[in-house]
Amino acid sequence: MLPPPANDLRPRRLRRPEDFAGERGGYAPWCGPTAVATAAGLDYASACDLLARVAPDRYPPGREVVTAWWRDLVGALDLAGVTAEPHPVEGRKTLTRAVREGLPEGWWLARVTGHFCLVEVARGGARVFDNRLHGEKLSPRAHGRRRVTHLARVPTPPGAE
User: Fold this and answer.
1) List of residues 6+ apart from 18 with CB closer than 8 A
2) Mean local confidence (pLDDT), 108-117
3) pTM value?
4) Which terminus of the chain is more exposed, N or C, with fewer CB under 10 A?
5) Which residues neighbour 123 within 8 Å (Cβ) at sequence distance 6 or greater?
């Protein structure tokens, strides 16, 4: 499912973890496809299809995308027309420290210890969006203590405007 056309007057919003779970028959979604789906404004199955197009050997048809690779998420976003601009990560910073030390405002695709998420950095803090959290303030419970391994700036996701 692609995002609604520009002339569609229905309200749009960021999809929530329960939306993705509903698409999966009530099962919790995996973080990689959820990050791609949220950033690109797609449904979960479309995000999985994009990952399979990027790396068919890693994501064979009919099998779940359980473990994803950073480069594949960036490639899937590129196929969806979403530019992910890499941002250097120096040292072994936690996500909280990276934000506190001046990660510029905007939306970020982040790989933190064993997990992918989107982070919205704004004046006064950051919010986390992933397969379990929807706009939760960055905190130790919301992945704040995890180490950042990769960052890329992404455009504001459809529905987050």
Assistant:
1) none
2) 97
3) 0.90
4) C
5) 105
Q: Of 24, 25, 35, 3, which Cα lies nearest the Cα of 132?
A: 35
User: How far apart are alpha carbons 121 and 100 in whole angstroms?
Assistant: 10
Q: 99, 107 in Cβ contact below 8 A?
A: no
Around 11, how many Cα atoms within 13 Å sit in the side-chain half-sphere?
Answer: 3
> Distance between CA 15 and CA 7 in Å, rounded?
20
Calculate mean pLDDT across residues 9-20.
78
C-alpha Rg value of the chain to the nearest Å: 15
CB 85 within 8 A of CB 109: no
Q: Nearest-CA neighbor of 41 among 155, 136, 127, 121?
A: 155
Q: Which residues pair with 116 in a beta bridge?
A: 111
125 forms bridges with which residues in the sheet?
Answer: 122
Domain segments of the chain as ranges: 17-80, 85-154
The pLDDT of residue 5 is 53
Backbone angles phi, psi at 13, to 5 degrees: -150, 165
- The string of DSSP letters for 6-63 reads TT--S---PPPHHHHHHHTTTPPPPHHHHHHHHHHT--HHHHHHHHHHH-TTTS-TTS
